[in-house]
Amino acid sequence: MPDWTSPEAQAKQSAALTLITHTFAGIYFWEVLISLDFEWSYISGRRKFRYPIIIYFLARYLALAAMIGAVIGFDVKSGLNCRPFFIFLQMTGNASGGMATINLALRTIAIWERNRYIIIVIVLLILGHWSLILQGGLLEASQIPGTGCVIVHTNVVVLTANFVFSMAFDLVVLILTAYKLLQLRGSHQNGLVNVLFYDGLIYFICAFLANLVATVFMTMNLSPVMSIIFNVPSTVVCAIASTRAVRSLATYAADGPHIFYSGTIADNGSIQFRPHLLPMARPGQILSLSTTREEPSQEGVHVRMERMVRVDEEQKRKSNTRKTEQLDSTLCTYGSNNDSLDMKGTAV
Predict the structure, then answer these.
(1) In a domain, 334, yes or no
(2) Side by side, which strands form the sheet with 286-287?
(3) Where is the signal peptide (predicted)?
(4) Are residues 96 and 223 in the same domain?
(5) Distance CA 132, CA 16 (A)
(6) Mean pLDDT of all residues in the chain?
(7) Could you tell me if 123 and 242 lie in one domain?
(8) Rounded CA gap, 316 and 282, in Å?
(9) Structural contact between residues 2 and 135, judged by C-beta atoms closer than 8 angstroms
(10) Residue 240 sits in a domain of what CATH number?
(11) 3-class secondary structure, 270
(12) Cα–Cα distance for residue pair 222/177, rounded to 1 Å
């Protein structure tokens, strides 16, 4: 079995850590670049700012700060105060993971209609998680001439507990979310329910696998470098999955469900309507639609019928259940400018 703590082995491990860090930092830089329009929508006022989006920005930019710092730390060979610098990297990376988990926890609270017991459970989990995050910066690093900063000691027990707790937290959030959404899905078949369910499931799978790999290497405790070699990939994967889930919901809320019906008159005079998609109108807005008639053919007369549709907020409230309204209204805090995500149309 190789000696993982020998100078030669640690030099190779440091080189591998540098390569992995640069690779995932590049991936994250690209992710931030291609999604800057989401931030711009808040700066320009196209989206109304609401407090839950602060967690999104913290998760996103704490991870960005960690990636920038990591690249600097591995590329600068001298002049750095290694221990404070690596503590900063460790804390920003861990804090980003904590914010990523809170992003999904806030959804769970909203889905459960701010149930006090759910809030108590999630708040206790958040406090426990952050008690471990704040201890995760306890490490030792030194500078080797010609090599740069090298980690010589890490608190493996705390780091492992942090990742295990994070996985357990994500699992609890997924179970609570799935349980409630399956109840709503059975009675409403709401497109919003599908978005929330699949976003939460995708985030959990990505975060769980990333944290699992990092946890395995930490529990093996081969060397100080090998114990944290997959921390950066874990941070990047969790940050990307979490922030994409938030943007997905915000985009869904802004676009909204759509309603449109067209029909065909057959030879026997019956009308068969088929659902299509049109942009959703706001309450009180009238959609101006037209009616066209095609020339007769051997198959009969086909008429494309389109109607004047008005979205009536009061009628919507009568046709939808109270639970769906509260769910839609609460979840709009993630970026929708609409008052609801599920609207019905009534003919005028």
Answers:
(1) yes
(2) 286-287, 309-310, 346-347
(3) none
(4) yes
(5) 27
(6) 73
(7) yes
(8) 11
(9) no
(10) 1.20.1070.10
(11) coil
(12) 37
The token pair at 119 is 């809030």
Verify that 14 and 139 share a domain, yes or no: yes
- Which of 327, 321, 136 lies closest to 234, judged by CA? 136
Query: Which residue range forms the structural domain that includes residue 160?
Result: 7-255
2 part of a folded domain: no
C-alpha to C-alpha distance for 62 and 115, rounded to whole angstroms: 30
Instruction: Tell me: do 68 and 179 sit in the same domain.
Output: yes
Residue 134: partners with Cβ closer than 8 Å, 6 or more residues away = 91
Instruction: Looking at the structure, tell me whether residues 92 and 157 fall in a common domain.
Output: yes
| 177 and 230 inside one domain | yes
Q: What is the pLDDT of residues 141-198, one digit of tens each?
A: 777 766 667 777 777 788 888 889 998 998 898 888 888 888 776 555 566 777 777 7
Helix (H) or strand (E) holding 262: strand 260-265
Do residues 243 and 56 lie in contact, with contact meaning Cβ atoms separated by under 8 Å? Answer: yes
Q: What's the confidence (pLDDT) of residue 321? A: 43
Same domain, 128 and 22: yes
From residue 147, alpha-carbon distances to 26, 112, 196, 327 in Å are 22, 52, 46, 54
Q: What average pLDDT does the segment 33-46 reach?
A: 90
pTM of the shown model: 0.70
Strands 286-287 and 292-293 turn out to be unpaired
3-state secondary structure of 347: strand
Q: Are 115 and 330 in contact (CB under 8 A)?
A: no
| pLDDT beyond 60 at 113 | yes
Tokens of 123: 């708040």
Q: Is the pLDDT of residue 72 over 70?
A: yes
CA distance 62 to 55: 10
How many Cβ atoms sit within 10 Å of the Cβ of residue 86?
23
- Rounded Cα distance between 113 and 105, Å, is 13
Higher pLDDT, 252 or 31: 31
User: Tokens 């709401």 sit at which residue?
Assistant: 190
**Comparison of pLDDT for 287 and 253, the residue scoring more:** 253
Q: Are 284 and 226 part of one and the same domain?
A: no
Answer yes or no: is pLDDT of 30 > 90.
Answer: yes
Place of tokens 């959609």: 287
